[in-house]
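Handout, section B. The chain below has 815 residues.
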Amino acid sequence: MTTSATPRRSARPRRRWRSKDNVARGRRLALLVLGVPLLGAGAGGLWLHGRLRASLPQLEGERTLPGLSAPVRVERDVQGVPRIAGKSRLDLSRALGFVHGQERYFQMDLLRRRAAGEIAELVGPAALKLDRTVRVHRFRSVAERSIQAYAEGVNAGLAALGAPPFEYLALRVAPLPWRPEDTILAELAMFVTLQSGLPERESLLGVMHDVLPPALFAFLAPSGTEWDAPLVGGAFKVAPVPGPDVLDLRRAAPPKAAAQGPSAERAAALDSDPDLVLGSNNWAVAGAHTASGAPLLADDMHLQITVPNIWYRAVLAWSEGGEERQVVGVTLPGTPVTIVGTNAHVAWGFTNSEGDWADLVEVEPDPSDLDAYRTPSGPRKLTHVSERIRVKGGAEETLEVVETIWGPIVDRDHRGRKRALRWVAQDEEGVNLALSALETAQTLAEAQEVANRTGAPAQNFVAVDRHGHIGWTILGRIPRRVGFDGRLPSSWADGARRWDGWLAPGEYPRIVDPPSGRIWTANARVVDGEMLRKIGYGGYDLGARAQQIRDDLLAIERATPEDMLNVQIDVRAIFLARWRDLLLKTLTPEALAEDPRRAEMRRLVESWGGRASPDSVGYRLVRDFRTTLAEQVFEPLTAPCKAADPRFRWNRLPFYEGPLWALVTERPPHLLDPKHESWDAQLLAAADAVVESLTRDGARLADQTWGRRNAAQIQHPLSRAVPFLARFLDMPRDELPGDSNMPRAQGPENGASERLAVSPGREAEGLFHMPGGQSGHPLSPNYADGHAAWAKGKPRPLLPGPTVHVLTLRPPGGR
């Protein structure tokens, strides 16, 4: 296996500043961001430039930090990665808060506001829709734990800046202080990011279950496919193709819904929806299969990538019980803990589990009282809560939240029934900072126990220890379901279906030291049987990416950190190979004779290279052929669902590859869209639609590379609202390799938020990189200095380099 192709720079270049241009670029940015007229603004520009520079963090010297018990030393390398050393972990929480507050405060502010539904207060009416959606969960009322030292450190760091972070200058608002409960809101924001799609997927299956014949529902909504690659159990089979007695499209009446007709453009847009670009990977390799003899951990968490990057690298060093401790990894600004990393005894990493952590509850009304509903203990009144949403530049809005004993009312289904949402995030048990105990875990067993007690968005937790053990479990609280599996919406009114508390750590699924010596997860199903029943079905990814990772790992006899990175950036298009073969079979000599554009398509597909490389046109053609065909095939099959509920989207079905491949290989005539005479004609129509969409307005098919489609759009929140700021704030529009269904799962806005490979105790050999840079300030040399290595898939050391800046934080009156 070879490494991925180097990204190409888009034809639309971005200006990249150099340090010698700092003053000039600072003045330009000040004028642009703050709206000062360019003419006659010399003095104003200088003043604003001064304010921008004043908001840069303090890197050197000394600073008093109230609450410290002893001095703390903050050493930064040339990339701005700090090593924060002090006497106690509590002091480090305070110091880390200081550093976060100086480097990333605006990012932290957006995190807490996102979870609380308070963004409109900062940016105005444009954020009202988002605020309304989130405010219904009333997360601020859940955030009650005190993380006092960290909060005080954040506010001290913010106050120590010579001016507020530049975003507040642009928005013309003052930053509000950080409160202890805001740390919980930052964690709850990750629930919103990672699990907010759960109700939609459950609702989608509910519509299909209610509207379609049972055999068709079973066929279109399988629990897995031949691509499954779990650690426990085998692949699940797709149900048989339904016969004409179930559905015959050639005889069926046209659907009542006026659905938009299929098109290549729509198919591409649907398949590129950011929520569909899953990609997190982690794995472990036992020492028997590594070059060093020590177990290796690799982790790359995939998210929507923004500027600054969501993670902040840090090394924390302190003394505890006479023992020197150090943890290396990434922190989440807004929280005082290391999220992913190594403490020299244990190394750990996450991927989103995609289990089922929320349920839609059908609320049965009380016939005798319109404001009441049925519960296992009898009728109860609905609870009405008024939430005030402050709006910058607009009138305050009142949102009426209606609550049940299970959670808030979130919608009505296709039959008009009210539905409440029961979600782990709404429960105090679901959110805590127990994750911090990983920083001192000595063994895999200890680490797994911590993971099972942690309240956080449920993750595939993979860890290795210095004793040679490797393992997997679930991090996050698991509800104990009674009476149902959680896959479909249901009524809980009679008490037969419910959550009955939480699983104890001893009941959690765990895997330790499997015979293969490898563990892998990739957002897909990991287990089966009783373990799967506990985790449930949330929205597992197709197993193609997991399968490719598994095969990559099994092919490596003596793995190194560099080998782990090569797997992380693998862009071989194994999943699409059979679709390429199908497209070539479709483009027969007879078909080529009918349209010369088909001949060019065939030539480009023949030379596709078998990789999601930026310069490959053939890869893009094969990919678009599959997604276009999928839309043309599934639109008529699911038309009754769309007619019943306009919100229905077939492409949210994670395993549609299974039924799609069955249809195009078995070719049942009764499930062929009546618009086509044969399945050959259907496939050829999909190929033609792709060519048509890519050659409009005189465009050349040979120019439609994958890189043009997959050009990075990694943006700062301000440039999303004010596009002309993009050249100052955003990352370059590199044409990136990678795609879904391969290890380097890469989209324009989504990708690896970090890549890590390390053996605990051998951190000096570890590798790490992430998009963007350490700093959130565009005038800092560390704003984007790590980005090129991430885009090109080049290794960088996990540990910081030589110290170039030292800041000492002292307690009041301390020396």
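Note. The two ends are 56 Å apart (CA to CA). Compare this with the example in section A.
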